[in-house]
Amino acid sequence: MWGGRFSDKPAELMQAINVSIGFDRRLAAQDLEGSRAHAAMLQKTGVITSEDAAAILKGLAAIGAEIEAGTFPFREEFEDIHMNVEARLRELIGSAAGRLHTARSRNDQVALDFRMWVREACDRAQAQVRALQKALVTKAEPHAATLMPGFTHLQPAQPVTFGHHLMAYVEMFGRDSSRFADARARMNESPLGAAALAGSPFPIDRDMTAKALGFDRPAANSLDAVADRDFALEALAAATITAIHLSRLAEEIVLWMTPQFGFITLTDAFTTGSSIMPQKKNPDAAELVRAKAGRMLGSFTQLAVVMKGLPLTYSKDMQEDKVPAFEAFDALELSLRAMAGMVADMQPTVENMAKAAGAGFSTATDLADWLVRELALPFRDAHHITGAAVKRCEELGCDLPSLPLADLQALEPRVTDGVYKVLTPKASVASRTSYGGTAPDQVRAQIKRWKEILA
Ligand code: ARG
């Protein structure tokens, strides 16, 4: 490609460190799409003739067919996808191929291809996040009133419902989805026409190519257009946060599956056995989703470190931008799909959850609230009395609903047996009617809202 200036071939090691076709071949479709738009624009603006444009478009179509058929020769000596396509175009159509690169550089070309790839990855991720949200809503709906313990510090805190718990993740994934949408909107400016870095002396029409390629507008500064990769960083940040949410749900599935919790079962479809312990049924998919979050964060960190401190504009460092994005989005898409599969597959063991919902004095707050409401005690005093009641339960080896009235009255003489009706997990949950609370009607209202959003 640069034989005019060079007389010797690169050293083998030079080629080895320089070559990127092994991974940027994944940009082939975007590269062809960008070239088609560029060629059409060059023709429309009179930079190249209609005959040359027609030959180029025909050649690009043939290359597209070869790639589709798996017969395209990806060659290391042509370094990257851009030069592989151009070299093949020359073989197919001859010298007209040399006109395609008019008013374009690999710098704006790769910025364009990569931006389009990341844009599509964001769209795919968003669709898969929505699919996962639908699976969660579908699972939550029949369990809007199914009792389970709510935890803080992984200690029993207050009873909640299984539906409420699942819907918490629907909210998280909703924000994740909107982060992909935001990133997409910000990245949707076309770098094409920035050329090497300074723009082009040819009468190019950047609005035309931007529109043809689905961008809102051309990027307004040619240096920025070729030099920045914040669109990829932002997408990786969104992917990382999504993966963190996924890892928390995965961790809960792992916990819930243990015989100690016994909250859910997964079928054989989403579990594995052990080669030595015949009784085992392991939640490997959940564990792998939990682990893969490391790839997203690692990829974000990798790209951030590549970009940090780079002077404007393009440096070859930036060739290392693609692998982290490919790896992160591959892992993310697989994780999202596996999680949606597990959510659909999991069945709660309702009796175990209900039993656990009442364990650990989980309705102690309800007792304190009763003392405030019925006896007009300051909450701090009610908290103290309730703490003493729990202590008394521990001495007697009972739970709060079975603590004798006399023991409660020893702590506060005005307590009546009306208190017992707030001490069951069911009553506790039913009382939490504040907006966004765990009362089944509130949970149902949120399920309804999300069903409409996701429809
Ligand atoms: N393969 C290169 C990359 O991915 C394409 C851009 C090369 N530009 C350059 N000035 N050497 O970044």
Provide a descriptive summary of the structure in words.
61% of the residues lie in helices and 5% in strands. The protein is mainly alpha-helical. The strands form three sheets. The chain has a two-stranded antiparallel sheet. A two-stranded parallel sheet has the order 3-4. A two-stranded antiparallel sheet has the order 5-6. Helix 8 links the parallel strand 3 and strand 4. The longest helix is centred in the first third of the chain and has 35 residues. The two termini are 52 Å apart. The chain binds arginine. Arginine binds next to helix 6.
SSE diagram, text form:
Blueprint: H1 12-18, H2 21-24, H3 28-44, H4 50-69, H5 81-93, H6 106-140, E1 147-152, E2 155-161, H7 162-187, E3 189-190, H8 206-212, E4 217-218, H9 222-227, H10 230-257, E5 264-265, H11 284-307, H12 322-345, E6 347-348, H13 350-358, H14 364-375, H15 379-396, H16 405-411, H17 425-431, H18 440-454
Helix pairs in contact: 3-4, 3-6, 3-8, 4-5, 6-7, 6-10, 6-12, 6-18, 7-10, 7-18, 10-11, 10-12, 11-12, 14-15
Bound molecules: arginine.
The site of arginine (ARG) has 10 residues, from helix 6.
Write a brief structural summary.
The chain is mostly helical and 455 residues long.
- Counting DSSP H or I runs of 4 or more residues, the number of helices is 18
Spans with pLDDT under 50 lasting ≥5 residues? Answer: none
Strand/helix succession: HHHHHHEEHEHEHHEHHEHHHHHH
Question: Beta fraction of the residues?
Answer: under 5%
